[in-house]
Amino acid sequence: MAVPAQQSSIKPKKPAQTGENLSEQAQPKSASLPPVKKSSPTLLGILESQKVLTPAQVEKARVEEASTGRELKKIILEEKYASVEQVAKAEAQLYKIPFVNLRETAASPEALGKLPRAVAEHYLILPFAFNELKNLLSVAMADPTDLQTIEFIEKKSGAKIKPFMSTSDEISKAIAINYEESLSTEVKAALKETTPLPKGAPVDITKLGEIIREAPIAKIVSTLLEFAVKGRASDIHIEPEEEKTRI
């Protein structure tokens, strides 16, 4: 009896893998990575880069902010890590707003005339330069990111506003100095224009009106009123003191 031939179960061999094939399998496919973004500057980062804060102070301030929720700026100032001016300069760099040193900057009469002193004191701002050609008013502010205040003083002054960073204390001092000096200069100029009558000189009655208008007190009052109109003041307060008069 014939035995049927068994079918061959031999499978074809896979081709041998070379070292080149193995290295290709071992390497994962390269994925396209997104470009690395530079981290945005921070107040702490700027102060550290300026060598104002040490790395230890930066870390301590971060921990304090995270654990207490206190404002970072207040932490820096209250812990005396930096001065008010150093923080203001760092904020100016952070917000890309120029910093103005009001101790070395005298405000022009044209700029001061754009905003009354009462407005400057209320909003803690100082107009210190005015470009008539561009109708551009440079204003020192303790918070130059306050868009609401900027919008208000634009309407009040009728000029475009260029904000500058400064400190609250320096602005307060500069307001007192510049507004008083501006008025004092105008009053002195008015007095120089007057010619006092010599004692015992006869007075021409027909020229009495002109003499009164040219009198020192009349010149002062006229100058005060003109200054008030330029500054858009609602009223004028005159406070006599022992050695000077405050207006």
Written account of the structure:
The protein is mainly alpha-helical. The chain has three domains: 53 residues; 70 residues, GMP Synthetase, Chain A, domain 3, CATH 3.30.300.160; 68 residues, no CATH class. The protein has eleven helices and five strands; from the N terminus they run αααααααββαβαααββ. The strands form two sheets. The chain has a three-stranded mixed beta sheet with strand order 1-2-3. β4 and β5 form a beta hairpin. The longest helix is centred in the last third of the chain and has 25 residues. It starts with 18 loop residues before the first helix and ends with a strand. The model has no long low-confidence stretch (mean pLDDT 78).
Provide the gyration radius in Å. 37 Å
Total DSSP E strands: 5
Terminal residue distance: 139 Å
Ranges where pLDDT stays below 50 over 5 or more residues in a row are none
Briefly summarize what is shown.
The chain is 47% helix and 9% strand. The protein is mainly α and 247 residues long. The strands form two sheets. A three-stranded mixed β-sheet has the order 1-2-3. The protein has a two-stranded antiparallel sheet with strand order 4-5.
Keyword list:
GMP Synthetase, Chain A, domain 3, 3-stranded mixed sheet, mainly alpha, single chain, elongated, two-stranded antiparallel sheet, 247 residues, 9% strand
Helix-strand blueprint:
Blueprint: H1 19-26, H2 43-49, H3 55-68, H4 72-78, H5 84-95, H6 109-112, H7 117-123, E1 125-131, E2 136-141, H8 147-157, E3 160-165, H9 168-192, H10 208-214, H11 216-230, E4 239-240, E5 245-246
